[in-house]
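Standup, Tuesday
Yesterday: got the pipeline producing structure tokens again.
Today: sanity-check two examples.
Blockers: none.

Example 1:
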Amino acid sequence: MRQPECVLDEFVYDGVVCSPDVQIRRIAFTGYTPDTFRGMPMNILKFDYATINAFSTPDAKLAYINDKTQYSDIFFKEKLKPMNGWAVPFVTGHRYRVSWANNLDFTRMNIQLSERWEPSDKAV
């Protein structure tokens, strides 16, 4: 998920480059129930207050939420660390809306913060 502090640099780094003051932390999602989550992509939408409050009507906000082109798709990961889940780098200091394909709803989900997460880090 690209944020304003980061840009796509396909020519030099073939990836996303962020300003030095940006903090990126990994969050892993595992241990889900029911098992219908297995193999499903995770969908992440920018959901900062400034973005959401800019919509003039509830219908405009709903149209943004329903616009699948606004989402980043994170594919399910069967390999270790974590196994059978999703591991995602997030730019801290921003809000995100996380959902899964077919609007699945979980009964249980483990959320693991990066080992590098410090109490002074910005929230996600």
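Example 2:
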Amino acid sequence: MSKATRTQSTRRFVAFVILAHTLVACNRNNPAQKEAESSQLAHDMIGAWVHVGRPGDVREIPAEGGRFKFRTGKHWTLVRADPTGLVTEQFGGTYTLNGNEYVETQQYADSHWIQDNGKSFKFTVKVESDTMTQVGVGNPYTEVWKRAK
């Protein structure tokens, strides 16, 4: 990949991250989101997160690239970029939260994840300071995330 292509990919990725942060900020002030923000956990989950591993195997936030999850009060999206800024994964949908039971329903995806559209995945979730842990219930997706800064 040429340097110009990497630069263009990085700029597109940065623009996407800025757009996602803007959407998150706008949705925090949306009255329709008040129900989703009724608990402290629901409020704490909103924002941008960087994947850092699994329980017992937590790494540092990557210096470049990474896997990012963005949440509003009702929607989520996940984006992975390689160190050059090229987006290599993207999928998302809606979610519900009942106590600490978190259920994601995938509604859109890139070609790698398209087969999961329409499927729901259940987790237990907790947020402690700037760390969120999702433990898959009936699925293998147990992950640790750090709040993006």
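Quick observation on example 2: The chain has one domain: 3-147. The longest strand covers residues 87-98.
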